[in-house]
Design goal:
This protein is an alpha/beta fold. The protein has helices spanning 11-15, 30-42, 57-62, 89-96; strands at residues 2-4, 19-25, 47-52, 70-75, 78-84. It has one domain: Glutaredoxin (3-Layer(aba) Sandwich). It is built from 4 helices and 5 strands, in the order βαβαβαββα. The protein has a 5-stranded mixed beta sheet with strand order 1-3-2-4-5. Strand 2, helix 2 and strand 3 form a beta-alpha-beta unit. The radius of gyration is 12 Å and the shape is globular.
């Protein structure tokens, strides 16, 4: 399942149950655009939430996002892993283990 976060208020509610891969991105980011089709492909395997750092800056600040794309894995609302930059699908699958 792939969701796009439309407001900062819903972030904690979205990630509180289960395992989530959160993609911190921006529309203007080249590597983010390269990552997007991979995440769409993986959405049949994982819960994925996309967070536009330009539209949700306080969430990006809360998690110290300094570079995009940044992928963070959350399990029941707790951050468990993080990776920065473009990643192929197999590396993302490894991150989600």
């Amino acid at each position: 399942m792939l969701k796009i976060l439309n407001n900062e208020v819903d972030f904690d509610k979205e990630i509180k149950n289960g395992k989530w891969l959160v993609d911190f991105y921006a529309e203007w980011c080249g590597p983010c655009k390269m990552l997007a089709p991979i995440l769409e492909e993986l959405a049949s395997e994982y819960n994925i939430l996309k967070v536009d750092t330009d539209k949700c800056p306080s969430i990006a600040m809360k998690y110290g996002i300094m570079s995009i794309p940044t992928l963070i894995v959350f399990n029941n609302g707790e951050k468990v892993k993080q990776s920065m930059g473009y990643m192929p699908a197999d590396d993302i699958r490894e991150l989600m283990k």
